[in-house]
TrEMBL record, chain A:
It is a multi-pass membrane protein. The keyword Cell membrane applies. PANTHER family: ABC TRANSPORTER PERMEASE PROTEIN (PTHR30151:SF41), ALKANE SULFONATE ABC TRANSPORTER-RELATED, MEMBRANE SUBUNIT (PTHR30151). Residues 1-31 form the signal peptide. It comes from Pseudohoeflea coraliihabitans. Residues 180-365 form the ABC transmembrane type-1 domain. The keyword Flavoprotein does not apply. This is ABC transporter permease. Its main location: membrane. Keywords: Cell membrane, Membrane, Signal, Transmembrane, Transmembrane helix, Transport.
TrEMBL record, chain B:
Keywords: ATP-binding, Nucleotide-binding, Transport. Residues 33-260 form the ABC transporter domain. It holds the Pfam family ABC_tran. The keyword Transport applies. Belongs to the ABC transporter superfamily. It comes from Pseudohoeflea coraliihabitans. Residues 1-27 are annotated as: Disordered. GO terms for molecular function: ATP binding. PANTHER family: ALIPHATIC SULFONATES IMPORT ATP-BINDING PROTEIN SSUB, TAURINE IMPORT ATP-BINDING PROTEIN-RELATED. This is ABC transporter ATP-binding protein. PROSITE patterns: ABC_TRANSPORTER_1 (PS00211), ABC_TRANSPORTER_2 (PS50893). Transmembrane segments: none annotated.
Amino acid sequence: MHADAPTRLAPNWQALLAFLAALASLFSALAATPFTATMDGTAALMVAALLVGAAALSNLRLSAALESAILAIGSFGAAWLLLGGLNEAFGTATLGYWLALLAAWLLGWRLVSVLSGDGVKTGTSRLIALIVPAIFGLWILIFWEALTRGAGVPFVLLPPPSAIGLRIAAATDILAADFVQTVVKAVLIGYLIGCLTGFLVAILADRYRFFANGLLPIGNMVSALPMIGIAPIMVIWFGFDWHSKAAVVVVMTFFPMLVNTLAGLAATGHMERDLMRTYGASHWQVLGKLRLPVAMPFIFNALKINSTLALIGAIVAEFFGTPVVGMGFRISTEVGRMNLDMVWAEIALAAIVGSLFYGLLALLERAVTFWHPSYRQ
Amino acid sequence: MNIAPHTSASNGSSVPQGSSTQDDASDRKVISTRNLDLTFPTADGSVQALSDITLDIDRGEFVSLIGPSGCGKTTLLRVIADLEKPTGGSIEVNGTTPEGARQDGAYGYVFQQAALFPWRTIEANVALPLEVMGLKAEERARRVRSNLELVNLIGFEKKFPWQLSGGMQQRASIARALAVEPDMLLMDEPFGALDEIVRDHLNEELLKLWATTGKTVVFVTHSIPEAVYLSTRIVVMSPRPGRIHEIIDCDLGADRPLEIRESPQFLKIAHRVRQGLAAGHAPEA
């Protein structure tokens, strides 16, 4: 035993705790109290046995690939069975159920640390960089689902993700129409106009200093205006349709772009400017060949900030009068009708759109400012 | 190898290709300053950076400006380059005003740091002034190629500056300055940020470059060995106010291997420069 111990056993705290929790849930399942009102005894026993086995194996010295496979099967297999046991069993989960869920989660944790830490350091790192956050996200959804259904959280407070998913699948046409109205029309058009004018005004303000001196304080004031105040006024000026929402987005995105571009244009070093001067370069040559490239990281900052501002602005602006389509309109009306799953479906859509928008800009930034010290390879 | 000796004994010297070879004395002068003054206004009074600078530099010379910090050596170089305007006196560069010379591309300026643009490859960096000048693509490619050859950077055209060592970056910046095909090279402590070994190597290369191109070089440094090794004349400057203390001829001949720095002749000139610097530094009676 003494000679064997260091080679056979590789205990880790997640698997040890999971083993204990799984063992406790196994007793609970054997004690003939099922995990939930609708889950049958054999399924409960299967879950507990699966967890006990996976946790025990994880404490042995195994190859990382084998341990990962065992952990994945144990953790997600148990979670799948546990979620299945919640059918028609609203709010009836027992202590044994929660202990089993805890054990499955701990095994999931162990899986992430095995994947990202010790052992697997080969060329699969790109794949792992995707798998690890995916496991994280999956567990958030599993807990959300289990807590809302198992503990009986009222639907209005927080619908389970499965209900939101069903709603998204059932209402794709509505979601698509809202997406076109809010994102394609108001956000994109407002964003393009706001960013472009902010950029062009910055170029002018940089060339003619008095312009900057007069404009910056006013711009500063405009950016301090509450959106809640601007939105209704824009509705009066530009009508109920997407034009007024695009106008709100223009107001919100203009100033960050102006300020960031001006800061970026001022970021050029003395030596580089002197260098261009020794060539007798014109203002526009210096701008194009030196100062704009230097300003690019600043400009991309503004583009990224504005991508989230634009989405928020367009959605909130729809609270102040809109035709009967649009993400903000849908959220405000469905809340009133207690259709919280539809509200969450719109929120999910906004989250996905916002992430994709931001991610696209980040990729573009990487391609354009590849030379910046933060991206160099 | 043809290295033009300093002008006081320049009768037999061959001036290599690339520069005008008229023997007319007034035409040999590339830089000529008369009683040059420069005063910077600062928060607590004005600072006299240059005082009564009178200096003539002939075509093909290698002149070093040496002195402690604050002696105005860099400022003088910047006045020649039209990066600063003098507040008094007169200056003529290449037969015209400094501004005219700058617009004509009469000089290439090499800074303390390479100042290469990180988003451009080495060849695109060397092509930068040529783009500003509006040269055609094939002419740009020809000049980039020949000047990278001159500084031994062939094979690194597609690299980005941050993928190169400091010494290679500075060589690229010299190629960039030469690509303009200027009459003069103005160099402001170009090797000051590099380590001793790289610096020796680049000094040797710079001498060869000077011999093959025959450019007039004005070179700011605070290293005595560097100044003596490279120059045909050394202008010793002293601070507060920045002025010329002494001009020392440095006639070490055309062939200057690195070992020449141990020769008695070299040490004698270095000693004179050191004495000049010490005397210039002493409080005035």
